[in-house]
Amino acid sequence: MKLFNLGSKDIGIDLGTANVLVLLKGKGIILNEPSVVALDMKTKKILATGNEAKEMLGRTPEQIKAVKPLKDGVIADFTATQLLLKNIIYKICQRYNIGRPRVVVGVPSGITEVEERAVEESILQAGAKEVYLIEEPMAAAIGANMDIAEPSGNIIVDIGGGTTEVAVISLGGIVVSNSIRIAGDELDEDIVNYIKREKNLAIGTTTAEQIKKEIGGAMPLATPSSMEIRGRDLSSGLPETITITSSEVEVAMKESIEKIIEVIKQTLEKTPPELASDIMEKGIVLAGGGALIKNIDKLISMVTEMPVYIADNPLDCVVKGTGKTLEDLERLKAVLINSRKRK
Known about the structure:
The chain is an alpha+beta fold. It has helices at about 1-5, 50-55, 80-95, 115-125, 135-145, 185-200, 205-215, 245-270, 275-280, 295-305, 315-325, 330, and strands at about 10-15, 20-25, 30-35, 35-40, 45-50, 65, 70, 75, 100-105, 130-135, 155-160, 165-170, 175-180, 200, 225-235, 240-245, 285, 310. α3 (about 80-95) packs parallel to α4, α6 packs across α7 (about 205-215) and α6 packs antiparallel against α8. The longest helix is centred in the C-terminal third of the chain and has 24 residues, at about 245-270.
């Protein structure tokens, strides 16, 4: 019996638009890779996933296609998502000698029933014994160590790659939630378009993401900075290097960041008065990669007139929440969207 237990561990997955994070119960986060799959179009076989596949984006010959199977927090390419999940679960089961694991997956709160089933089926086909789905903002709140079971209001803002999700949580449930398909990926696109428009230079989203991380801010930075970037001059078609400043990046991202803040305000407006007063006291917690954009906490605090805190390791909140749910599955069953078991 002991041996069998050794072989059946539980896995938590944050199926993000930008990254897939996997946590093994009792071991912590064991995988953090970009949600990218490289496929051979002729054989429909996976050539690479994660970092290796991301490096192929925009650089592949015709028969190889590098795709991001999740767009705006939802499954855009079902086959590629299925292959990605199968590949990840297979790799982990082999590496850690796991039998058929129970899996808890973080999914966007606006997910449709069809998408729910699609995620479930992919994971069951990949060899899982049972699959549980948890809404990402709920998982993020659990992962950020918020006491979700208390009869008082907490608000979490999860700015991911494809979606920004805002949820007010009380008594282990989501009272008010809002989701917008503007987040990290959209900000990268904003930077690509701004540089195309203002600098007549074509750059890829990987470069844009680098710019956002290094010098992007939601408000002017204390010490303005700049960086050199390379791209293709749209007039001559030749490679060119230019310098871009942090204030230009701020202008590029301004509109999308304003939309994210608008969603936070709308959610607060719909919050019942008793919970709103709790939130005024406790403040807003930011999770997800977008929480790392410089000064975004200051800007949200200024607009909402509330304290804003960035969760510890905001990128890991959702996956850590799935892990904590696995540890206490019986008590936290109520927060799961489904409790379907495959016998």
